[in-house]
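U., I forgot to send this yesterday:
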Amino acid sequence: MTAFFSAAPSYCGRFGVAVLLVVLADFLFYGQPAGITAFLFAILIAAAVVAVHPTAFSDIRVWLKPAALLVALLPLAENVSLLSVSIALAALVVFALSLSGRLRHGMARIAGQIALFGLAAPFRFVSDFIRWRKTARRFGGRRVRLAAIAVWVMPLTLGAVFLALFGAANPVIDYWLSLIDLMKLLDLIQLARIAFWLFALAGVWAFLRPRLPRFSRRGPRPTHALAAAAINPQSHIIEDIVFGKAAILRALIVFNVLFALQTGLDATYLWGGAALPDGLSYAAYAHRGAYPLVVTALLAAGFVLAALRPGSETSGDPVIRRLVYAWVAQNIMLVISSILRLDLYVGIYALTYWRIAAFVWMGLVAAGLALIIARIALGKSNEWLSSANLLTLSLTLYACCFINFAATIANYNVDHSFEMTGQGIPLDAWYLRSIGPGAFPALDRFFDHQGKTAEAGAARELVRLRGIDEGWYRTVQANWRAWSFRDWRLLAYLDSKGSLVLPQPSQPSLPGR
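Result:
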């Protein structure tokens, strides 16, 4: 009974912190643009997590965790995007689990914990509330509920008294109190707003009470396995033949020959510049092969991991190991060839978000294949390989948060357009307009160039829409909540650029003048 009463204020205290965070979330986000407020709110959540875990300060290295968290939150200050928000949420999960002493070491285990946390987070508050109610009933629910309410009576009562006294003594506070309109406050209670509050409460509560779902462990069922073996004793023999050492050796020989053929074709047509068969263009050759080759490399990686399991008979065979090294090396060449194919295609048909994502994805596949070679050569486990790949993926996504892909796409497409170079395809300026304000500088360079040519009339409508877009963008950025470091740099450019005006077409002279 005593233990529960000591725990009840902790629950109520966390609930009070959660309510305060929900109020701040309503002020920062509801009906407002997202910008620097996402970074500030993430810091507030981190501070709340520290406040509800005071025992974490007993660790002498406690300040390393906030420092690492701050580094992970920097992408939010650069720009608010799905990627930067995902990195921030993952970092907050790791931070909360670490302070609560529930974080398991190893990249693979941490990734699993993040996934479990995300699955359990929407239901954490409801499950904690139900558990608290059950515990309250067990220890005399009415008395416990009264005690939980009573602890707030004195603070709220005295707080109201002090607020009234401050209002009488301070005209500013008195003015603020006079602005409180209860009827207007009732108007704020809308169904959408209540849904936002509940969503925010569920989210912040998961960080204040970081717990992972518990799954019942099922014991091994040797009876079924023995029964299956007794029914069909030849199943193990067939498995050893189909997936045994001899089969893997033959498979690796065949795979190496096939991959060598593919690599030779790429070397001939892509790198050597040989003439393609009739009816096939370099663009079609590049586009048709880029993505299937990456899928091929992934399947090859899965085969290698299955064939060379640590401690298996095949993993210790020197011939198989050499064949695996050669095959993985060819897979890396295959991915590099896929990158060259995509680069050739982009050079003809311009750059898009999906094509940038393909470049990043192919680079990650190549890195993963290199790590497979390292795992085999160093004799590491599959868990080590998973952790190394997750670390590579995390660092890549973190770096991507600081790259302005909209500006990259716009600059590349403008610089390689037919209008600017006389080669390639015409610029799809409407697409550049659709990718957002990051394309403003590149579009301005394009308009400046168009203003010096006979094509000025074709760009005049786009210039008008570009001005409308800038006006909308400046309106959004006038709200301090929308600030980000990237937007600050763009606004500095727009202020220094001034308005863009294309020359008006000359009017023909009337007869007799």
